[in-house]
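User: Need the bound-state model for adenosine-5'-triphosphate:
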Amino acid sequence: MPSVSMGGLQLPTMSSLLSLYASLSAVIMIVRTILNDMIPESIRDFISRKASDFFSSYFSRDFTFLIEDHWEAVENETFRAVQAYLPTKVGPDTSCLLLGHNDNNNLLAVAQPGVSVYTRIVDHFQGMKLEWTLNEKEEKYNSTYYIPKNQWFQLRCKRSDKERVMDSYIPHICRTAEKIFYDREILSIYTYNQEESNWESTVFKHPATFETLAMEPEQKQGIIDDLDLFVRRKEYFRTVGRAWKRGYLLWGPPGTGKSTLVAAIANHLRFHVYDLQLQGVRSDFELRRVLTSTTNRSILLIEDVDCSSNSTEPRSSDEITNDDENGPDVKKRSASDKGVTLSGLLNFIDGLWSSCGDERIIIFTTNHKEKLDPALLRPGRMDVHVYMGHCTAAGFKLLAGKYLGIEDHELFKRIEDLMRKFPATPAEVAQQLMISGKPEVALDGLVEFLKGKEVDRIEKIGGEEESKSKNLWCLMRKWKNKKKKKKTPLVAEE
Ligand SMILES: Nc1ncnc2c1ncn2[C@@H]1O[C@H](COP(=O)(O)OP(=O)(O)OP(=O)(O)O)[C@@H](O)[C@H]1O
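Assistant: Bound-state model below.
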């Protein structure tokens, strides 16, 4: 290489440096072209991302936490906590905010704030500066695979604050979110969308409360006390080694207020309701996924459990054995789409999967308790069995008070007597009381309705008597025919 001598030192000339640079650039370009041709784009991306992560983690003074919407295939509770917490930290430097509500019956409902994608939110906590952004990856699908949309929060802080974020800041977020959830004014009801494989929510604004529920006062108070005790007993459940769950079985004829009681429980506890139709779930495997994606402080409602696909079908002997050992073997069925099996359901009530989540209430309703598999009724499975029966005198008085605003009336005694003879459901009574705002008219209507039940009954009995006599007549005819047939051979013989 040409060089110049300076004070005894041999230095390369400018032109030789330029030609060295040119030949190095040419070599790099050739290598790059070869690599680009030989290595697929996804692998090149991966290598460059890894290299950039490696160098930035060495030279950057920041640290990044990523909080994804799912954690080990179930909803990530930390993500949910951040989602509830961040809207409370919107400051002057926040440039964008989501607003909305899902109260589809009320256009004037107050819009709730939410974090919008890619918006930077800055929070300060114990002298630390914390920068948040919500990121999103669009769903991808083609004929062979489907990757659902996923979101994650990115939290950037100083590297030196990393430990404090983990030990103090994140627990602070979770505590704040818990309070937000606890104080929430809006309840939601979720229904499972099988097509989309997710829960869809809408605002739950059922007006029923324990006050409006027609029921025997002691029975009602018993339920309220049980619920209040349940929510206070977090530590107790931990100490005795049980999942913090409570199972209710509500049974009784249609129109006696089972669904109304569920609404009253949700309003009393301020719990969301997950309304699950077991027929809409393809397998035990799907059931597990569906149930693990429900949130804490919620009610899982399975109505008309006696009609729910395979869940009341008698179990095979091996199922019973496995179940009774508290570990039902669902593997055999999990891959198939045979619907939910009783084992799958029981496993969620008190098997190993029952420990997923806290502060959950499971409610089954049925019109026919006798049709349920005894395994479902075994002590410990459904903690509380509530019979919702026909309207009692106390129930009627409560309904009259709520619907007509009266505490007493001369027709009360007559109505109570009639109801004892001809039981009516609270739904029927409520229906009659709604007919008029005038107590006289509504109560008269109720008397007529109850008397109508007597007529119905007589007609029914009459019908039965008639069919009995028809049966008798048929028997007589058969008997006569038999006698005739018996006689015929004799005549022939003669
Ligand atoms: N115990 C009750 N107290 C107050 N209202 C009641 C009661 N029972 C029924 N009702 C009234 O009747 C309507 C129907 O009752 P609800 O749907 O709760 O009955 P259900 O027992 O769940 O019936 P089903 O078994 O058919 O689901 C309610 O909207 C409510 O207005």
